[in-house]
Amino acid sequence: MSKEITADQTARYQHALATDPTAKVLERAVSHQGILATSADYASEADMTPVFSIDLDTGKVANQKQSGRCWMFAALNTMRHHLADLFNLSDFELSQNYTNFWDKFEKANYFYENVLATADQPTSSRKVAFLMTTPQQDGGQWDMLCAIIEKYGIVPKSVMPETYNSSKSSELNSTLNLKLRKDAIILRQLVADHASDDDIAAAKDKMLGEVYRLLSFSLGEPVSEFDFEYRDDDKNYHIDKGLTPKTFFDKYVGWDLSDYVSIINAPTDDKPYNHTYTVEMLGNVVSGRQVKHLNVSMKDFKDLAIKQLQAGQSVWFGCDVGQSSERQKGIMDTKYYDKDALFNIDFSTTKAERLDYGESLMTHAMVLTGVDLVDGQPTKWKVENSWGEKVGTKGYFVMSDAWMDEYCYQVVVNKQFLPDDLKTIQANEKPTVLAPWDPMGALA
């Protein structure tokens, strides 16, 4: 039975504040300075000095600007680090706009296929509502970028630079989603009218042609062949003619992307450790690489990241960046804000509880480029962000090990670093399919 708030209750709450000698002081501080500034514990800054026992030199940070392409920037940065070492090119970026174009084009087709697959369900069904809430967006996951590269390759940023709409994506996203929802109405009606497969395919083909035109006007049309002209760090001139995006990837990055696997830490009851998982309706390239996660303990999670850093290779990772994070100073530390002490309220929850109750999920992807090991144990991590050089230490952040425990959910590592038992599970186990809205399906 529902119960209203009574006058007696309110009177008791008011009396408790009136008899608390600190209440008015705290009220003035919080109301004028805000919750975060008032609860900040600046002693955390001393612990988060940017000095690391393992510290990879990865050059200048990139800037995703007003777009949600962190996952793409982070993944291309790991490849850029490798390319820079091989070809003596420290001040160099791969084109995030090129992969962005093909990602959005493929996401449109992926959306159309999901619309057709659920066309027999009412618009009130949870799956259809989930699809229509955000037909496509800037975000993604590691496996989704691999699917794009495996199909379309990559190019230098000089070949396909940023545009207004890639750097400030809200107008493009709202326009493209308007079109996709309109197209969903048409496709669902065709199915309801028992249209032939050929008629549905023709309608979808017309829609994709319009998406291609929309993206070409907004982002520029992707190149199919180009010359790569550059000077290396020693000022030596180079030109490589007649490259395609796929031959460029093969020659200048040369990774077998199947070697790189997604490792997650999701300590919820529905996801036992040492098993693999995928997420329904999560992806971009139809018939392309499937999203596949191997869930492990936090100890294994961190050990794998450390092994890759020790081998001299940076690590893509996904986290909930807004939690206990000071953006301007570039500090992510569970001790930075003490809201419990400020309000005398216990806000504590476990990592599993935050996932189960919607308090946390993966919101951002960055790159681990260092770690501070003391007596063999990590104490803090060096993080390359993609928010430009005006935040953190020239764009680099410091993350406490405790923060990693609580708010990091995914790393991507070369499978050579997996112990044999986990390597076998990752390679051979058919993944459990999670619901489309599972937090492990969040797009960074």
From TrEMBL:
Keywords: Aminopeptidase, Hydrolase, Protease, Thiol protease
Compartment(s) where it occurs, according to its Swiss-Prot or TrEMBL record: Cytoplasm
Keyword Magnesium annotated: no
Primary location group: cytoplasm
PROSITE patterns, alphabetized: THIOL_PROTEASE_CYS, THIOL_PROTEASE_HIS
Gene3D superfamilies to which the protein is assigned, alphabetical: Cysteine proteinases
Keyword Phosphoprotein part of the UniProt annotation: no
Annotated InterPro entries: Papain-like_cys_pep_sf, Pept_cys_AS, Pept_his_AS, Peptidase_C1B
Matches recorded under Pfam families: Peptidase_C1_2
Matches recorded under SUPFAM superfamilies: Cysteine proteinases
Similarity comment: Belongs to the peptidase C1 family.
Protein name: Aminopeptidase
